[in-house]
Amino acid sequence: MAERSFKAEVEHLRMGNGEVFTGEGILAITKALLENGVGYVGGYQGAPISHLMDVLADAQGLLGELGVRFEANASEAAAAAMLAASVHYPIRGAVTFKGPVGVNVASDALANLCSSGVNGGALIIVGEDYGEGSSIMQERSHGFAMKSQFWLLDPRPNLPCITKAVKDGFELSEASNTPVMLMVRIRSCHVTGSFVTKDNVPPPLTVKEAIANPQSDFNRVVLPPMSYLHEQDKVKNRWPAAEKYIVENKLNEVFGPEKSKIGIVTQGGMYNSVIRGLQRLGLADVFGQTEVPIYCLNVTYPLIRDEFDAFCEGKEHVLVVEEGQPEHIEQHLGSFLYKSGRKLKLYGKDVLPMAGEYTGQVMLDGMTAFLKAAAPDMLPGKVRAPNMEEPQIPDLSKTVPIRPPGFCTGCPERPIFAGMKLVEMELGKSQITADIGCHLFGSLPPFEMGGATMGYGLGPAANAAFDGGGERRAISILGDGGFWHNGLTSSIGNMVFNKSDNVAIIVDNYYSAATGGQDVLSSRAQNDTKATQNPISAALKGVGVEWVRQIDHTYDVAKVRDTLKEALTTDFKGPKVIVASSECMLNKQRREKPIRNTAIKEGRRVDVPRFGVDSDVCTGDHACIRLSGCPSLSLKRLDDPLRDDPIAHIDQTCVGCGNCGEVADAAVLCPSFYRADVVHNPGKFETWRAGWRNRIINHLQKRRDAKRLRLKGVVT
User: Which burial class, exposed, middle or buried, applies to 108 when counting CB atoms under 10 A from its CB (0-12, 13-18, 19+)?
Assistant: First the structure.
């Protein structure tokens, strides 16, 4: 189950000509695909546009009615390879995944696709995961577009522009026989707005019709000598055709006055930030009317020299707003200026940061620096937002600690790392590599397990160099999502083929949890459109792993500890793989909470487990916290003057997983944890029994209190 359902929203995708659609960018993109006759769609889930795959999955009924094929691909490489359908057939296809890591995974297929070229429109919708909201390394997809020669669209982040970019992308692809990448940032995906819809269009040629009349052309095969001709075709035919389409259809936009001594060139996706900065400087209004000319690059590759030259006519200073590094666009435009011999000063990464997200304040500071140097007369005396005084923001960088991500409350992966910590205490520190996914949080305090990650599903592969028969076996970690994405072949298959003697732990939480809870091959739930319930252990044995241990309840910390210890000390030579399975707590809560709340509302009896810490038993050494790290496990100070150290405390966010108690038991800590079942809608007998117990307890407490020694003015 995905973290968010769009079953209600996808009904709006049926809107026809002249109606007004209101919603998020990801829904608008899907609507635009249907309006432009897409024949097949696919992709791999992953932030920041994982919801686009969820939208497509929830819209499968409508896609089927239109004859559109939907594929939830096993990886980004599989998604990109799917676009091969547009090589020989005039069918429009679109795939989506996360960039740049998704582009990296898909690079082989994308490079071949760009070499052979396409007949049908091929659109790659990439979520550019950059800035403080990113979960990955900070890179851009722009360099890959330049390397493989596909065209890169970066539309202004509003729904009319985004939906137009889908149409433009297909048409540009067909006009130049080249795949097109549509880049959308997080804000573009989730911006809310409106646009006027058109009728959905069934694909002129469906994939079912195409396969009935197979086509082939050996000139499209990427082999010598055809591959040499492909390169020439890119430069002599496809590139000029792309530039011609871009210019004739005015894909790039110019705003503001025709004549000015200054100007701004910006990526389309950064347009809102630019116009907001100008508003704060008093040089633009809320309707986007600007006193500074703006050349908005809705197509950031290829750059059109004639358009840039025309924009620079009569200008003395031009600022390039290009988020991320290296400064590909700035360098390219600088080359245009040098070759034309134009006497114009180009600004960019000198007044704006070379790296990092261009937030509102960063943009304001950079544009202010640009105006101070280029047009100080246009700079107001005091820069402030309309109707807002400048805030006095204190520097908290040395006061407030960093807040890296961590495991959710009740996460079933937390006890796995607690068990690993206990083994480390007994056998010593091991060489550990991590992997992409929630389990990567285990490399952070309090566990600090694993200090390197090299890619999705590559945890065991990253430890291959340490399989030299040393004193200790290395430990590798990967998740079920990574296992099915790339890990089965690149990691586990690699271990088997090279007769590795190391240990791999596969964290199986039933879903591709880190990307939003989508189903994978080993998910336990019944999925009507996908094949689930395929055990990981069966796949392991199928590729030759002989030593496999299955743990079906990871909260059993003692079992996790003992199984890992066995793997590290056994005489068996060969790969040793532990499959540690328990359902992702977030998905479990999403499924169970509505059912439980409905039952309570209807008056049915419901037990809700809760855990607590007995303040009279807790010693306050906090070892439980160091072995758990659960957000619901915190500290609490007592009123007792003889106990000034804070004790452990479980707050109201507890989900009743029991990990804290299991950790305390496995590590032989204090027995201060207890479980209490909160009973909703109890029966008459239970109500009577609870009242009877309370009366006895109150009686005993009063009797004990009466026997206490009391001095005048003092209670002891």
Answer: exposed
pLDDT at position 89 over 80: yes
Distance CA 75, CA 107 (A): 12
| Residue 144 predicted with pLDDT over 80 | yes
Among 435, 420, 499, smallest CA distance to 464 is for: 499
CA distance 349 to 328: 11
As a three-state string, the secondary structure of 457-468 is CCCCHHHHHHCC
- Of 178 and 690, which is predicted with more confidence? 178
Q: With bands split at pLDDT 50, 70 and 90, how would you rate the model's confidence at 452?
A: confident
Residue 29, SS3? helix
Q: What is the pLDDT of residue 399?
A: 76
Q: Does position 294 have pLDDT exceeding 70, yes or no?
A: yes
Structure tokens at 198: 């058109």
Q: What is the 3-state secondary structure (H, E, C) of 505-528?
A: EEEECCCEHHHCCECCCCCCCCCC
| Contact present, 267 and 327 (Cβ < 8 Å) | no
Q: Which residues pair with 297 in a beta bridge?
A: 267
Q: Which of 484, 438, 591, 518 is nearest to 54 (CA)?
A: 518
Higher-pLDDT residue of 330, 514: 330
Report whether pLDDT(437) > 90: no
- Report pTM: 0.87
Beta carbons of 128 and 141 less than 8 angstroms apart: yes
Question: 55, 26 in Cβ contact below 8 A?
Answer: yes
H-only helix segments in 313-359: 328-340
- Residues near 443 by beta carbon (within 8 Å), at least 6 away in sequence: 434, 449, 450, 451, 453
Cα within 13 Å of Cα(1), Cβ side? 16
Q: What integer pLDDT is reported at residue 542 of this predicted model?
A: 95
475: β partners: 432, 503
| For residue 609, cis peptide bond before it (omega within 30 degrees of 0) | no
For residue 614, the SS3 value is coil
Q: Strand, coil or helix: what is 145?
A: helix
Distance CA 412, CA 640 (A): 35
Neighbours of 341 (CB within 10 A): 6
**For 357-415, what is the HEC assignment?**
CCCHHHHHHHHHHHHHHHCHHHCCCCCCCCCCCCCCCCCCCCCCCCCCCCCCCCCCCHH
Local confidence band at 674 (pLDDT 50, 70, 90 cut-offs): confident
Omega into 646 within 30° of 0, i.e. cis? no
Q: Which residue has the tokens 């996808």?
A: 10
pLDDT of residue 387: 47
Give how far Cα 204 sits from Cα of 36, 82, 96, 393, Å. 10, 19, 22, 58
